[in-house]
Amino acid sequence: MFKINKQINRFLGLIKWPIGILMLALIVPAFQADFYLFDKYTDKEILLEFFFPFGATVIFFLIMPGLSGSFLTITEHELTHMLFAVLTFHKPRALDVNQGTGGSFSFEGEGNWLIALAPYFFPTFTFFLMIGVSIYQAMYHTLPDFYLILFGIFIGYHFIVTLFEIHPQQTDFVVAGPIFTICFLPGINLLIYGMLFAYLLKGWAGIPMYYYLLAQKITAFF
Length: 222
What we know:
Blueprint: H1 2-25, H2 27-41, H3 44-63, H4 71-87, E1 92-98, E2 102-107, H5 113-117, H6 124-140, H7 147-165, H8 171-176, H9 178-202, H10 206-221
Antiparallel strand pairs: 1-2
Helix pairs in contact: 1-9, 2-9, 2-10, 3-7, 6-7, 9-10
């Protein structure tokens, strides 16, 4: 496993700045693609069932900012580090969560920028919700009546907690590199939120639809 993660780390090191520059270049086309989805497909039902819970969750965390340092949010943050460590073949060692003071996750190997930045763009709880909803749909051949509400809460949670976690003293940004972090995070987050909204509209088929739309916006922009 050590040899594999070493090779993966080397590969991620080679593509680090090309990906950073790509994400920087995609900010405007991705924003245009996201805005097109919101403008074309947002109707009264989606506004009420998705955006109202989304907004309510964001406001709730703004009113009670201490929740951003809760056991739940710290656990998700560290689990996301762990998920991407495992995906890049790093063996986990320890996961420590302390409410109010933060958490830590350790693994074997040197690590890479993807592990460091994963919690700031990947919505772990939302991803598991997507899997759960997909299983429900496969079993009952329909979506739960309240699935838009659930996604509004979960995506709103990810959005506001990520905002709280982004600050100049964040040690993960030092690991990945501050300049690279600035280049990478805006573009990747626009892509993630665009894919999530496309999924809400069309299910898993919405994701390739989103990339087709993104390709059109890239062609028009460049």
